[in-house]
Amino acid sequence: MRLIQRKMLFVPLIFHCSVLFTSGFTYELELKKAQKMLKGEQYDSAQVYFFRASKNGMSRDSLFYLIAETYLRKGTLDTALALNHSVDPGDNAALQKALLTQRCVIYTAAGMEQRAEALLDSIGALASLSEKRFTPSLGFAAGVGYESEKFIDAVAYPLVLPEEPLLKDTIDGLFYQFQSALTARYKLSNGIVPFISGLVSINKPNTVSPDGNEFDSVGVSGGIRTGVGNIAKRFSVNYEWTRMVDNYKNHSSINEIFASYIHSSRNSVFFSSAGYRHELGTNMSTESQGGFWIAYMSLIFPEVEVSGSMLFNGYFAPSLLWNDQDSSLTVREVRPMGPLRPDRYFISGPLDTLDASTIIPQSNIMFLAGPSVAIDMPFKFEVEISLKWSIKSFVDKCIWHWYGHETGSIGPVAVDSIFGVTFSDAVLAYGNEYYKVIENSCFGPIKRFEKKRVDNTIYCDVSVSRKFRVIGRFTLGGGIARTWSTLHDDAPIDIPDRDWSVSAKWDKTITWNKE
């Protein structure tokens, strides 16, 4: 977007004028020098080069348009508007579109919002006439990197006492991913754009499958995506349906509808979008659903772009229920047989059943916000630095149990007083506390925990990228993340602690039949 903002008024004229030559000399060089002066806000010097370009064959109308641009950037709006009205674009659609866009920016800067809004329909109609109806494209993206993740290990429960230090574990290794999409778009006369895409994705995380098979850790998926875009004017409304299947024969269907609004001026861009997403799994049951709202604001200066964004996201999915062999425990009343048999106990029979299963909620509400800075460097490199903070609050509480390991001899076994049956895995009840016989010699309380999970995370990312006209864009980057969770003192599940990664990425889009 920053490229469009900086050059959308200037690039069409370079294209329009560069086809003219005088005495074998093109005035493209003069225009490039003028453009450099505009970036450095040296407007008087830029005008000199524009006049030189005019002497070398550039048209009078192009000259007036470009001089108007210098006065617009200087803030002399009346002179800019007079020069803009002096331009006769003729049959040149590119110059006509740039001229109307410039006039809209002048009206907006002068506070004449109604006149500016009236021009938007004209600019949109002109763009719809000049754009090609059928536009196929082929996109590629590939990346490879190294990631290290440290987390609080859930294996610590129920094998340690709560006051003992929890175990930390680290997963690190190489990861890679590849994505490709072949898309066909067709623009209708009313501006609505139906499309269809074929998708292929290969993803290898920095971990391997539980059996250690490297190949089984690679996820391969493919599918189709179709939908319609630009359903409404000014506000773009889009609907997308995606059907995917992976190498494990898992199926998913995703329905997504979202609306977007964008407003741009000479030095700023505002974008906002909101939508709803619903996913069905292999058995056609709801895997997840949720809504989102995102807002993005960018301020553009010479060679620097400062932006800020915020995201609200709601994710709703069924809770995970972990059942093990001890998830359902029978509670029995136990009392000593008497002083003659202190090593034996009477067990009266079942009194209650204790549900000791672990419930891990998935539904959460997240807020993410932060600034970023993009800086133009020599040789067309761009450096971007971003800092983000997120808070994720889970809707329901985590529920888990801890089985105590307090040592206490109660005899080798417990004996049923009626049938004489021995119990090596009985649950004892003393008052309101539950106890379980462990290995016939230890016992301790079964404690129930309920705690709400809230994660706070700070992200810092740095990247360097360069776009090549033929081979695409290359990006080198790295990032770190640090998480503070309310469950860091407990570990019913693996809880993120910190993460860092470095990666190299490449992406390229080939579009045919474009304007």
Account of the protein in words:
By secondary structure, the protein is an alpha+beta fold. The chain contains eight helices and 22 strands. The protein has a 14-stranded antiparallel β-barrel. The chain is elongated, with a radius of gyration of 33 Å. Residues 1-25, 405-413, 416-425 and 437-443 have low confidence and may be disordered.
Give the key terms.
14-stranded antiparallel beta barrel, 8 helices, elongated, disordered N terminus
Q: Give the N-to-C terminal Cα separation.
A: 18 Å
The secondary-structure class comes to alpha+beta
Rg over CA atoms, rounded to whole Å, is 33 Å
- What is the number of E strands? 22
- Please tell me what the overall shape is: elongated
Unreliable segments of 5+ consecutive residues: 1-25, 405-413, 416-425, 437-443
Order of helices and strands: HHHHHHHHEEEEEEEEEEEEEEEEEEEEEE
| Overall pLDDT score | 76
As a percent range, the share of strand residues is over 45%
User: How many separate helices?
Assistant: 8
Placed side by side, the strands forming the largest sheet appear as 1-2-3-4-5-6-7-8-9-14-15-20-21-22
Helical content stands at 10-25%
Largest sheet: 14 strands, antiparallel, barrel
